[in-house]
Amino acid sequence: MDVLVCIKRVPLSGGKFTITEDGLDIESAKLGFTISPHEEVAVEEAVRIAEKEGGSVTVLTLGPPDAEEQIREQMAIGADRGILIETDGQEWDPQGTASAIADAINADETDFDLIIMGNESADASGYQVGIRVAHKLGRPVVTGVKGITIADGKATFERPVKTGREMYEVPLPAVVTVLDGLNIPRYPSVPGRIRAKKKPIERLNPERPEPKLEKTHLEVPVMKSRQAQVLGNGPEAAPAVVEIFKQIGVI
Amino acid sequence: MVLVLVDHENGEIDEASLQTLTYGRELAAAAGEPLEALVVGDVGVAGSLGAYGVATVHVAVHDALTGYAPVAAARAAADVASRTGSSLVLAAGSPRGNEVMAHLGALTDLPVAADCIKVTPGSPTQVVRARWGGSLIEEANLHGAPALATLVPHTVAAEAGGSGTGEVAEFTPELSDADLFVVARQGEAAHESSGVSLADAKVVVSGGRGVGSAEGFAPLEELAELLGGTIGCSRVVTGNGWRPHTEQVGQTGTKIAPDLYIACGISGATQHIAGCRNSKTMIVINTDPEAAIMGYADYAIIGDVSKVLPAIIDETKKAKVG
């Protein structure tokens, strides 16, 4: 089984975002970077599949040259190689992103049996790149998955819904988008980190197409202004809390 | 014409789809265009849509359409949109709505704006949409006709109205085997702990890193039971294996809007806030008065969860007896 996992470098926000002066990006100069929890479980699942079935795990991302950091982190978890579709830091829209990913997959010498993505990216949350890539490759796709079983050239995917769960069975090769909670990702080991430094990353440089979903402005939504009223310190605050319970009618 | 994709399950129309119809009706009226709807597979639910101002309800019927089939639904939507010359196609920003719309975007090679809170038709169509699970708002131009967009649930309340007659027009979409590869097979209900579900609970007592361990959740469970609520937690907690992921509140967990949210030892990362920002009242217990979550809470107790909670539990028991 050769598995490809797509990830996306996003800023690691503490409590609140600040927007850049041009109103188009998150002020990230002082922020670290990470990937979505959906993608962390995607990589973990790919590594588990390769450990069980044999084969390889490739991590692909479309992002700035610095996104190498996110690829190396996933190599420390167990991915074997990386593909970095380099951008100049400008955002690509979902269609442009999906086209570049599909082109990279078609050009790659490995025929991936399974392509795993997060259900939606942490930042843009467009819910569509996995589906668009599947259509371009002519493969079946299941989204929002929280359980994967591989047997006899077929994949069974489990998707939670309000009333329980839906089961999907599709032939491989296939595309699947997954949700946080699929597994508990491991932490990278020290030897894993050392090995990651030497693993190969292929870099591609396609041209950014004009976005058809064109971001024009970003802002932090105006919230009901809240600053917590401090009821007290430690256990002495308990009677005041119970007064609140009574006020809002929960007891 | 404004076309709304209407989702249904077991003969019931999805509430978020009715909200989307309500929103679509306003846009259609403003543009002087009719509102139409697409229902896939169940002619039975179509009759009720006239009350929402739908002029024509297109119903896709096909022998192979026995359950939810996202690609087939998108194929049917592409068929109706092209035959009727739709200017705008809307669906609910639900897992299914976003999925079918993404397939429609892929089949037609048109851009899709997911999770919108505002759509202004035009050339280009302008949208306002949620990013980072609602922690940021994006304005964007959508360059494509028809414009394809999904609407965040609860952007508007579902309201009957309008002058549509809800004429039902059945048709059989042309489907290939590949369109039907993925048809939902309903499985048995997943393991859910008995009692109130996290999504519907009126009271949620939620724990983060500050709870310290799996055992540390015992007083949270006791308080939740006293208040008729349930347990939630942050991502750190599920990552440590202290609680199952089904209890995770956040951008990649469950998004909730309880009457009361009690956040115990939770710092307030945007990932978490995205899941609980709509709580009506939020009480925070935290040792750090500077924690980010203080900016989202109504009331705070500065202190250690393991010391504060037992006192709250005692006082609550006294109040309930009294």
* Count of β-strands of chain A: 14
The CATH topology of the largest domain in chain B turns out to be Rossmann fold
- Structural class category of chain A: alpha/beta
- How would you spell out the order of helices and strands of chain B? EEEHEEHEHEEEEEEEHEHEHEEH
Q: If you had to describe this structure to a student in words, what would you say it looks like?
A:
The complex is a heterodimer of chains A (251) and B (322). In chain A, the strands form 3 sheets. Chain A has a 7-stranded parallel β-sheet, with helices on both faces. In chain A, strands 8-9-10 form a 3-stranded antiparallel β-sheet, with no helix packed on it. Chain A has a two-stranded antiparallel ribbon with strand order 2-3. Chain A is globular, with a radius of gyration of 21 Å. Chain A has helices spanning 37-53, 68-77, 94-107, 129-137, 190-198, 238-247, and strands at residues 2-7, 10-12, 32-34, 56-63, 81-86, 114-118, 141-145, 147-151, 154-161, 164-171, 174-178, 201-204, 213-219, 229-233. Chain A has one domain: Rossmann fold (3-Layer(aba) Sandwich). Chain A contains 6 helices and 14 strands. Chain A is α/β, with parallel strands linked by helices and 251 residues long. Chain B has 322 residues and is α/β, with parallel strands linked by helices. Chain B has 2 domains: 2-180, HUPs (Rossmann fold, 3-Layer(aba) Sandwich), CATH 3.40.50; 198-321, Rossmann fold (3-Layer(aba) Sandwich). Chain B is 26% helix and 26% strand. Chain B has 7 helices and 17 strands. Chain B has helices at 15-31, 70-84, 95-108, 218-226, 235-239, 270-276, 305-321, and strands at residues 2-6, 8-9, 12-13, 35-40, 56-60, 88-92, 112-120, 125-131, 136-142, 147-151, 167-171, 185-186, 203-207, 230-233, 260-264, 281-286, 299-302. In chain B, the strands form 3 sheets. Chain B has a 9-stranded mixed β-sheet, with helices on both faces. A 5-stranded parallel β-sheet of chain B has the order 14-13-15-16-17. In chain B, helix 2 packs across helix 3 (95-108) and helix 4 packs parallel to helix 7. The longest helix of chain B has 17 residues, at 15-31. Chain B is elongated, with a radius of gyration of 23 Å. Chain B starts with a strand and ends with a helix. In chain B, 57% of the residues are buried. The mean pLDDT of chain B is 94. Classes of the chains: A alpha/beta (251), B alpha/beta (322). At the A-B interface, helix 3, helix 4, strand 7, strand 9 and strand 10 of A face helix 3, strand 7, strand 9, strand 12 and helix 5 of B. Strand 13 of chain A pairs antiparallel with strand 9 (136-142) of chain B, so a sheet runs across the interface.
